[in-house]
Design goal:
Pfam families: MNHE. It is a multi-pass membrane protein. The chain is an alpha+beta fold and 198 residues long. It is built from six helices and six strands. The relative contact order is 0.12.
């Protein structure tokens, strides 16, 4: 078993143990804290046992490596926040109107293929879309970067197109706020047609 601490490929405060196993100190510390909280008794025995259990868990059940590649673009963040606030306001009004409307709405789940590929951007886009009252993500398919979004007005022929454009707009704003150069180049291109493979 070899320990490698200064590998630029690894996250900070982590070490490689053998092949394909990475021990991250923040995760191990958090698992040890949870262990002590579960026992409800702060003692040296519980702390040491917590660290041992955390290391064993990380070695036996390794988490997949996630390349964050997070970049902060201040102007993009401002645009995203303004768009989110406006979208939350207008969508809240729309949902309130629908609640008091007597006619029934036919709901549907819409598959929206995204252009971004990183786990971070896929997750951030899904969270941003779910923050808006009018759109809720029911599934994220990582294998082909597709969000499945619940829409209420499925009987309206233009509702699906509006929902797709809204998700793609949110994806573009999110990537331009936090993405790297490659992801920004991806969202600059037109979205791929529905059903198009990766």
């Amino acid at each position: 078993m070899t320990l490698t601490f200064r590998d630029p490929e690894l996250p900070p405060l982590s070490c490689a143990v053998g092949r394909g196993r990475v021990l991250e100190l923040p995760l191990i510390t958090w698992l040890a804290v949870v262990w002590v909280l579960l026992w409800g008794n702060l003692s040296w025995a519980n702390v040491i046992t917590g660290f041992v259990v955390a290391v064993v868990l990380c070695l036996v059940f390794p988490l997949p490596s996630v390349d964050l590649r997070l970049r902060l673009h201040p102007l993009g963040i401002v645009r995203l926040v303004v768009h989110l606030l406006w979208d939350m306001y207008t969508s809240g009004l729309k949902v309130s109107r629908q609640m008091f409307d007597s006619r029934p709405y036919r709901a549907a789940v819409l598959a929206v293929p995204l252009r971004c590929r990183s786990d971070l951007m896929l997750t951030a886009t899904a969270v941003a879309v779910s923050n808006v009252p009018d759109g809720s993500v029911v599934e994220v398919r990582r294998s082909n970067a597709t969000l499945f979004v619940h829409i209420l007005e499925a009987d309206d022929p233009d509702a699906a197109d509006r929902a797709r454009r809204s998700v793609w707009r949110m994806e573009e704003l999110t990537v331009r706020a936090f993405g790297d150069r490659d992801e920004i180049a991806r969202v600059s291109r037109a979205p791929r047609p529905e059903g198009d493979g990766r």
